[in-house]
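Lab notebook, entry 254. We have the chain sequence and a SMILES string for 2-acetamido-2-deoxy-beta-D-glucopyranose, and the next step in the workflow is to get a structural model of the bound complex before anyone spends time on docking refinements. Request logged below.

Task: model protein plus 2-acetamido-2-deoxy-beta-D-glucopyranose, output structure tokens.
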Amino acid sequence: MKSLLLTIALAVSATYAGITRISNGEDAKLGQFPYQAFLQLNNEEGKIFRCGGSIIDKNWIVTAAHCTIGMAGAYVIVGMVQVDNKTQGTKYVSDKLVTNENFDHATLENDVALLHFPQDIQFNENVAPINLPTDKNEDLVGKKFIVSGYGHLGRDKPKANTLQYTELSVLDDSKCEKIYNHEKFDGTKICAKGEGGKSTCGGDSGGPLAKYEKDNKTLMGLVSFGKGSCEGHNPEGFTKVVEYTDWIKGKMAN
Ligand SMILES: *[C@@H]1O[C@H](CO)[C@@H](O)[C@H](O)[C@H]1NC(C)=O
Ligand SMILES: *[C@@H]1O[C@H](CO)[C@@H](O)[C@H](O)[C@H]1NC(C)=O
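Result returned:
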């Protein structure tokens, strides 16, 4: 019985993670987030799931492992901010999903994955890669980063048609440890929270948490999990990308 309850609790948290949208965010303009990918994945049965991703190279997009695990295929649309606007965006079909070998669905450790694209992603003013972080010793606590995504607009609200974004502040891991029992904060995650109900929600998963320094943008986190109702009451967990820069570069080199 005990193990059954545990399984249910994890399934609930995983579901939330898998469906993670931005609540109380703002509409993005075309070209504002040139690294953002709208990601659609399908399982063997053909069921479709929405996630986010970030362009890091002409043939590679990074996302969360809980988005790719068990999936049979994926495509992205880049250079778009409105899903229903057929004049925007270019579609690329992935030929390879690379889920981190050590991804743990229970603890959401190593929640990082890559999508390979055989056709080069064409860069322009609306489509461009984001830098991977390199400084493992950078203290992130107190810093403000921008999260973006096409996830749900709030609990019981529809998925976003227009790309949403908002600002979150990084908190000490201890603030998340108090709230999350299963998802381990061991230095490989970022704990971050918005103000005034700003939050990620279902469908944002795998998307970017980015640092802006003048014109230099760096991918600091990946949307991984949250708890509550997308109302920003609790801080949320993000994969700390700098801990996986070597893994990402190793996969890209092979
Ligand atoms: C669709 O996108 C184009 C290109 O950005 C824009 O000019 C047009 O106004 C958009 N249409 C709608 C209905 O928003
Ligand atoms: C931009 O950010 C990346 C990653 O943090 C860093 O390696 C690079 O030196 C930065 N470039 C500039 C011009 O600051």
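Notes for the group: The radius of gyration is 17 Å. Worth checking against the assay data. The pocket of 2-acetamido-2-deoxy-beta-D-glucopyranose (ligand 2) is lined by residues 131, 133-134, 216, 218 (CB under 6 Å).
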